Structure formats: C-alpha cells, structure tokens
C-alpha cells in the first residue's frame, strides 16, 4: 500500500507541476505576444515619428536659416581663403626641442638624457609669439594656466637641480646668438621659464623686434572672426 | 493494480482484528462480482484510449521538438515588425540631406451638426490652424452641412493640439503629403508631385516609377550648401542689376556631377499652382540661349587643337569684317594686330572670327558636336531644352557661331563643354545623380591634354588681366570667360542682353566649373552703365568660389599675378619695335 500511495503522490505532484507549468507557459506566451504586438506598433510609430523628425531636422537646417541664426548669435563668419595656411607658407622655425634637451641633459648629468616633451606652440585665442612676448614683459606676473604649465615647472626644476655649469652658459649664449640672427628664435617653442634662466647671462631681449605670426598646424584652419 | 487484483481477499471480520499484518482474501460472487468486472473492463478501455491519445501527443511533441515537425517554418524572422507602409521614396542630396520626403498628415474635418458651440470651437481652433481665421472656421461650423473639411494638412503637432481640445465633433483622416524641407531652394531640380503623389516635374517626374517602387532614398549630386550659396549670390546680382531672371550651376568636371543647379525666379514646390509660368521655367536646363563670347573658348580650343592657329599667331583686328550683309565689330576697337592670347583676353570678335575661318566650318561643327553642344543634353530631368544649331551650317554660321551667336544651348551644355575643355580634354556627361567615384569612367576625349593646358592658361589670363577680372577669387586661381549676348528680339537683336560668366577653378588642375547668367540686366551707375558679363556675372562666380572653396576643402594657394608685360603668354605679344624700344 505504501508503495502504491508513494507513486500516486509522486504522479499527482508531477501532474500538478505540469499543469502549473503549462499554465505559466501559456500565460507567459500570451503576455509575450501582447508585448510583441506592442513593441511592433511602437516601432511603427517611432519610425513614422523618426521620419517626421528627419524632415523637420532638414527643414530647420535650411542653409538660409542657419546663416540667419549664425549671423545673429555668433561672432563668427564663414572661413575665408585667407584664413587657410599651409605649413610651407610659414616663416622658418628654429628647432625648439634642442635647448630643452640640453637643459635636461645638464640637469641629470647624463649624456643620454631624455628629451622633455614640449608644449605644442599652438593657440586658438592667441598666437604663440604674442604669448611668449607677454610672458617676457611680466615674468613674475600672472602665470598662464594651461597644459604647458606643469611641463614648464618640471623643466625649470630639472634645470635648477644641478649647479650652473659652463655648458649651460654656452647653451644660453648659443641660443642668444641664434635669437639675434632670427628674431623668431627662442620664442617659438622655447618656454618662458627656460628663457628667463638663460636670460640672466645674456643681454636683455627688449631690442628684439616684436613679431607676430599665424598659428601653426599641418594645414590649419583658424576659426574665422568676423571683421 | 495487478498486485492488488491478484491479492487474495478475505471476508471482512470486524470482531477479529489480527495483531500483525495478515494476508486476507476476498471472494466475491454473483452480481457483485459482475459489476466489478464490468467496471474494471471499462476502466481498462478508458485507460487504453487515454494511453493511445497521450502517446499520440507524445509522438507529436517529440516530432515537433526533436524532429522539427518535418516542416521548418521560421516564425521569428519578422521580429522587428512588418515592413512600414510603402510610401514614395525620399530624395536626398549628396550628403544625405532630405530634399523630398513623404509625410503622414492628418486631414481635419468636422460634423457641424454635432458642434454645440461653433463660436467657441472656432475660437479654440483658430490659433492651431494657421491657415484660416476664427471667422472663417465659424462660418464653416455654422453651415448646415453634415461634413466640412477644416484643414487638409495638419502637422503631427497640430493634430496633437487639436486632439487635446477634446472636441467630439472633430475627426481626422490620415493621408500622405509630399514635403520639400528646402522648399524653393532645389525646386527646379527636384520638381514636384500632384495631389495623387505622381511626379510631374524634375526628378520627381523622371524617377516617378522608381520612387514609387523603391524603399531606398534617391541620392542626387546636389549639395544644398553650394546650392544655397549659388542661389543667394545670383539673387543678389539679379536684384542689383534689375534682371528678369538668372541661372547658374556648379559642376564637378571630373565626374560631371552637378553640385548646384539654380534658376531664378524660383517657386514653392508645395504650391506649384500658385507660381507663374516664368517662375516654373527652368532657365538652367530648359532655357536655351545664345551664349555669346563664352563660345570663344571652343573656337579658340578648336583652332589650337587642329594646329590651324598657334598660340603666338597674330591677327589684324583693326578692320571690321563684312560678311553676307553682317558687319562684325568689336566692343572696344583695338588698333593693330593681336596675338591669340590677346584676342581671347580682350574677347575680340574680329580676331576670333579670323581664327574660326582658319579652322574651318567642318572642324568647328565636329568640335561642337563632340562637346555635346549640338544635341539635347542627357540630363535626368524632363525639362531639357533642344539646342538651336544653324541648319544648314554655312560659312556665315561659322563666323557667328565662333563668338556664340546663331547657336543657342542651355547652361548645362555650356558648363559641361567648358568642363571638358579644362579637364584635360575629357568630357563627362552631366548628371544630377550622385556618381560613385569608382563608377566614373575616363570620359570621352574631346581635346588633347596640351590644348586643355593652353586653354586653361588663356582662361586664367582673362581673369588676371582681361574682361573677367571681377571673378578673381583670392587663392583659388580662377579662370574663365565672360559672355555678353544680345537677346533675339522680333527677328533681330534688341537692347536686352544675357550676361554670363563661366569659370573653372583651381586652374592648375580644375575641380569645378561655375556658371552664372543674368537675364536682361540693366546697367547701373556704379558700373558706369555696363551690364556685361564681366560686371554682372563674374562677381557672382567670384563670390560663389570664395564661399564654396573652403567648404569643399579646396586648398587655396595665393599666386602672384605677374605684371602684364612680364606674363609669358603676353611677352611675345609686344611687337618687336616695342621690345627694342623698351630695351
């Protein structure tokens, strides 16, 4: 009897479980079907909405409208041919890596010293030349904030670590003669910090004619400022 | 079951209950036994039936689950829903900006009898339906009809707002409408459809079937930015010189693609019915015009190509030419002799005619034919004008055709022919559809590379020192040719003019041809009364190039124009005496 009852109970449980499972699956399927219908209809609606929005986007992007809005709200104009320059059209540039490399070597006392990375002489708001001049005029004044600042500090520290050697004096002198040869030297890539370091052993630079230049890039398109 | 059945049964004895498990047998006799037997048999039958049924289901389940039911029906392929309702395909520009699309719109109608308070409903609807005023709406709602249309085209936003009013007497009917986001900007090229959605002009007409059947947008060669620039500059000059119309185009000489195709005045493609015939007339393709001096490009190129004339040959232009009752004079009479570059630069009719006479009628005719100027241009829109060519092509025709009279072509033909001349002599058929760069063939050779090079130099000369100075866009080495033609007027030529300029840039390896034409410009005070191509159309080309050059990434390279006396093409032009004297 006990065997009979056990099997009966098992079968009843199985049957109950199957019934429950079937019930669950059936309603799950039904729910999923409804969801699918809903999703399909949503997709259809979204597609239509997307289509309408695309048309609206095109309508709002009419060149005539953009031009009107740009001239009303922006300080910019279309790029002109005069604002596009090629690298070859730029004035010759003195190698800016050299002095810093030498400084780095002098500081570490290592001939195979590492060249330090340089701040890229590029600026949107102000050409590099002008910035270098400004920094020279007020050396202790406001420190420029920017990507180059930490680098400059690091470089100054490296330079200050070792005692002043004749090598560095030479570096400064070299640089200075180059600077007088070409009025753009020493300002293009040379940081103002290292310029100041060497400036102590060289005549003041106020005699240099001030130079201005357009920014540097491969082929750089500057943002056009409406005149 | 069997165990129970075989178990021996004993009569139940209520009084004697054994202490342990005792096997008892139960024997049944008579009717009782029969009933039980019957019941057992029925149970058995039912059990078999159920067993068969369940095994059938089991087999089927196995079949479906394991053996795939023998029939592989993939039910999940359309999980992303059925394809959207087939509508007319979009037309897009070369960068994918939508030029024409079909939008679902709702048409709003009302049942006036169900409206309780027409005045209030009209008042509520008026700010939403911008097309009509509250008074008009009220009149409609007050009518005794059972059905009135209030607005045929509601945007989705308008529909939403109307819905939000919650007025039960208002109903919507869903329909579709062709919409042109850029409106009149590309109206002439794209065209328009009628109320049934059938294309009846432009690309809409010629690709009607394709647009109906396809789901893929049709990509045109147009660039809306360039189109806008061209339209704006043409419109400005047309107004400045009080012209009656204008046309222009920008063509990629390496592929034949038209980046812009403009005709002014233009129209709103949503309401073509309201536009005048003049506005719907496509001056750039359907209009054929005697182009005037721009044809000297082809006359000179033909002369140089056949070696009938060399670059430094001199022609006497002091005497007017009289032929068959015509007298040909120059705008500015030059004394003495001119070399070919000078003739071209100053646009001397007499010099060009003399060159054409050297070249001959046959060569001229064949050259113009090879350039595609004698037959209608193959363009993808139905509005294409058939050129008017002299028939028969007599000697006098050769004379007039050499400077662009007696032959009328449309702007696309002219630009395409100029494109062939500057593009190393290879012609690409003009097209309004975007061409895959790999699809572009080598083109048909019309001129040799040498002739093309010479012609580019001559065209640059025109802009540097000649009649086209006003087209010299900084940095883009523009070359071109001005054209000022008298419009035919009652069998003769009247005062009205067509002033045009066709230019190409950058001249060392041209990418684009830009053509501008103003119909009947009037001379202005600040141009000293002139309304010639150099004054009217050349500045348009200049401005268009200045604006589109940076946009399309053409590198500007400022070139220094040498003093006229030092230009290699003009040095030899000075007479021996002059050179000796200057030394």
TrEMBL record, chain A:
Polar residues composition bias: which ranges?
164-210
Protein species of origin? Rhodovibrio sodomensis
Q: What is this protein called?
A: Cell division protein FtsL
Q: Where is the composition biased (Low complexity)?
A: 131-153
- Per the record, the domain of life is Bacteria
Which residue stretches, if any, does this entry annotate as coiled coil? 22-49
Chain intervals for the UniProt region annotation (Disordered)? 131-213
Q: For this UniProt record, give its keywords in alphabetical order, as a comma-separated list.
A: Coiled coil
Automatic annotation (TrEMBL), chain B:
Query: InterPro entries from the entry?
Result: Beta-lactam/transpept, Beta-lactam/transpept-like, PBP_dimer, PBP_dimer_sf, PCN-bd_Tpept
Ranges for domain Penicillin-binding protein transpeptidase: 249-545
Keyword annotations for this protein?
Carboxypeptidase, Hydrolase, Membrane, Protease, Transmembrane, Transmembrane helix
Keyword Hydrolase among record annotations: yes
Q: Signal peptide: which range, if any? A: none
Q: Which cell locations does it reside in?
A: Membrane
* Coarse class of the protein's main subcellular location: membrane
Pfam families, sorted: PBP_dimer, Transpeptidase
The protein's name: Penicillin-binding protein
């Amino acid at each position: 009897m006990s065997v009979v009852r056990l099997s009966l109970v098992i079968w009843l449980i199985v049957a109950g479980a199957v019934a429950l499972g079937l019930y669950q699956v059936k309603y799950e399927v039904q729910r999923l079907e409804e969801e699918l219908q809903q999703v399909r209809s949503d997709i259809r609606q979204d597609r239509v909405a997307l289509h309408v929005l695309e048309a609206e986007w095109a309508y709002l992007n009419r060149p005539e409208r953009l031009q009107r809005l740009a001239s009303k709200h922006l300080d910019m104009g279309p790029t002109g041919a005069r604002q596009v320059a090629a690298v070859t059209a730029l004035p010759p540039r003195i190698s800016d890596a050299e002095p810093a490399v030498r400084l780095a070597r002098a500081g570490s006392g290592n001939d195979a010293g590492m060249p330090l990375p340089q701040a890229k002489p590029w600026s949107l708001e102000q050409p590099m030349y002008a910035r270098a001049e400004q920094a020279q005029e007020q050396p202790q004044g406001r420190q420029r904030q920017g990507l180059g600042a930490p680098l400059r500090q690091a470089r100054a520290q490296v330079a200050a670590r070792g005692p002043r050697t004749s090598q560095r004096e030479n570096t400064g002198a070299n640089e200075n003669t180059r600077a007088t040869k070409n009025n753009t030297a020493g300002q293009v890539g040379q940081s103002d910090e290292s310029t100041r370091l060497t400036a102590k052993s060289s005549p003041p630079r106020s005699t240099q004619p001030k130079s201005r230049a357009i920014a540097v890039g491969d082929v750089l398109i500057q943002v056009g400022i409406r005149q | 079951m069997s165990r129970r059945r075989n178990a021996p049964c004993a009569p139940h004895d209520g009084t004697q209950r054994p202490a342990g498990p005792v096997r008892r047998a139960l024997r049944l006799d008579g009717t009782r036994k029969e009933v039980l037997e019957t019941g057992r048999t029925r149970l058995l039958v039912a059990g078999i039936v159920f067993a068969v049924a369940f095994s059938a289901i089991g087999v089927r389940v196995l079949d479906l689950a394991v053996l795939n039911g023998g029939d592989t029906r993939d039910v999940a392929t359309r999980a992303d829903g059925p394809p959207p309702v087939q509508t007319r395909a979009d037309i897009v520009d070369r960068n994918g900006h939508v030029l024409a699309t079909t939008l679902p719109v709702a048409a709003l109608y009302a049942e006036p009898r169900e409206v309780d308070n027409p005045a209030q409903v009209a008042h509520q609807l008026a700010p939403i339906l911008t097309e009509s005023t509250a008074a008009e709406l009220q009149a409609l709602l007050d009518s005794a009809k059972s059905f009135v249309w209030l607005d045929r085209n509601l945007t989705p936003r308008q529909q939403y707002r109307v819905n939000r009013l919650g007025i039960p007497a208002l109903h919507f009917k869903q329909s579709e409408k062709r919409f042109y986001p850029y409106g009149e900007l590309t109206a002439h090229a794209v065209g328009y459809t009628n109320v049934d959605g059938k294309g009846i002009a432009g690309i809409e007409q010629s690709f009607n079937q394709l647009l109906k059947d396809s789901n893929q947008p049709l990509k045109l060669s147009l660039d809306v930015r360039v189109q806008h620039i061209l339209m704006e500059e043409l419109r400005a000059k047309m107004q400045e010189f009080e012209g009656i119309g204008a046309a222009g185009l920008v063509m990629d000489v390496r592929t034949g693609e038209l980046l812009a195709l403009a005709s002014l005045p233009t129209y709103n493609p949503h309401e073509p019915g309201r536009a005048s015939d003049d506005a719907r007339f496509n001056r750039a393709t359907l209009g054929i015009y005697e182009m005037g001096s721009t044809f000297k490009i082809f006359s000179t190129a033909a002369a140089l190509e056949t070696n009938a004339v060399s670059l430094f040959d001199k022609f006497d232009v002091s005497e007017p030419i009289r032929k068959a009752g015509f007298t040909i004079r120059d705008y500015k009479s030059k004394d003495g002799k001119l070399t070919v570059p000078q003739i071209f630069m100053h646009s001397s009719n007499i010099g060009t005619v003399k060159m054409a006479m050297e070249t001959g009628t046959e060569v001229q005719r064949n050259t113009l034919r090879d350039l595609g100027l004698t037959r209608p241009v193959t363009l993808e829109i139905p509005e294409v004008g058939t050129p008017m060519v002299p028939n028969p092509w007599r000697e006098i025709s050769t004379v007039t055709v050499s400077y662009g009279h007696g032959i009328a072509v449309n702007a696309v033909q002219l630009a395409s022919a100029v494109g062939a001349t500057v593009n190393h002599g290879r012609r690409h058929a003009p097209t309004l559809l975007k061409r895959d760069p790999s699809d572009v063939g080598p083109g048909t050779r019309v001129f040799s590379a040498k002739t093309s090079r010479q012609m580019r130099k001559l065209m640059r000369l025109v802009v540097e020192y000649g009649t086209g100075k006003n087209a010299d866009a900084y940095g883009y080495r523009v070359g071109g040719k001005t054209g000022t033609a008298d419009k035919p007027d009652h069998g003769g030529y009247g005062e009205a003019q067509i002033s045009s300029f066709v230019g190409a840039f950058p001249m060392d390896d041209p990418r684009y041809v830009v053509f501008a034409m103003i119909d009947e410009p009037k001379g202005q005070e600040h141009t000293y009364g002139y309304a010639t191509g150099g004054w009217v159309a050349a500045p348009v080309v200049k401005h268009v190039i200045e604006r589109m050059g940076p946009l399309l990434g053409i590198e500007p390279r400022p070139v220094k124009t040498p003093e006229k006396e030092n230009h290699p093409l003009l040095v030899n032009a000075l007479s021996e005496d002059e050179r000796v004297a200057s030394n």
